[in-house]
Amino acid sequence: MKIGFIGLGKMGYHMVEHLLGKGHRVVVYNRSPQKTEKISRESGAIPAKSYEDLINKLKAPRILWLMVPHSSVEEIIGLLSGLLEPGDLLIDGGNSNYRETRRRAIELGSKGIHFMDAGVSGGLAAAKTGYCIMAGGPEDQFRRVEPMIRDMCVKNGYGHFGPAGAGHYVKMIHNAIEYGMMQAIGEGLDLIKNGPFPDTDLLKLSDVWNHGSIIRSFLMEMTHLGLKHHPDLSDIDGFVPNSGEGRWAVEDAKEYGVDVPVIEESLRIRLASDKVKTFATKAVAVMRDEFGGHGVLQK
Ligand SMILES: NC(=O)c1ccc[n+]([C@@H]2O[C@H](COP(=O)([O-])OP(=O)(O)OC[C@H]3O[C@@H](n4cnc5c(N)ncnc54)[C@H](OP(=O)(O)O)[C@@H]3O)[C@@H](O)[C@H]2O)c1
Asked: The pTM is what?
């Protein structure tokens, strides 16, 4: 298949590599041209210098994938919408709010442009192993791009979950679950560190927990790596940013009358972490950095 790809950041760059590795032809555009040049030179992507150049290098009906922060999606759609033609398909692979996605699908749909959402999970590690993708949008458009989605994902690691917004909705819930799981791991370690056995080797424990225990998991692996890279987490500040999804999930829970105390409390702790820093928030900060490359504030 031939596809246009916008956004060669921590996620997009390697997703394009996956597509190229599976024989797809990918025309790439990135705001800063160095990444466009690098992936074209090293991996065989077709470089585009501008949105116009990108559109011209694809034959209608086109398929375009956006992999940018949710705060930039509106601006980019604005720039693209005058260039796209009826029948073209635009896919938002970032972590956008599903309500915005529903609105965008209606607005673009009125011009005959198809719009799909694709929540992507797997973080930086997925660059090697493949991604997990949760799609929303018209079923026929999903079928149109399914071979490409399949090629970016681990085996059985993708699905279509309903009309526009459904993919971003389940990705939002996925991230909200992640908030709670990470907070629980952090709190457990905090209680060991500040309990009756403060000299417990947490690096060793997180490794042992990853071998056969019930709480062995990808997040526990990230905890282990975080402790390895930041012994005793002593250089970590403990501030945990929130990118929106946990907050949106809590807002939705209130609107729909669903009780989500674990997620809500995890969000509250994150929001307060600019002032209240604990061993638990430090652990959450390093986990996020290990799986998503989100960075950590050093003390
Ligand atoms: N990191 C993760 O673990 C992860 C996991 C799942 C989903 N996501 C989601 O995937 C999306 C991308 O994340 P990422 O981690 O790859 O982000 P990133 O590393 O910060 O990369 C962002 C990309 O978007 C481009 N961009 C930003 N603002 C732009 C604008 N106004 N116009 C044009 N291009 C713009 C950047 O271009 P420049 O190179 O010029 O800055 C860069 O290519 C986000 O929605 C994120 O929430 C991230």
From this structure: 0.96
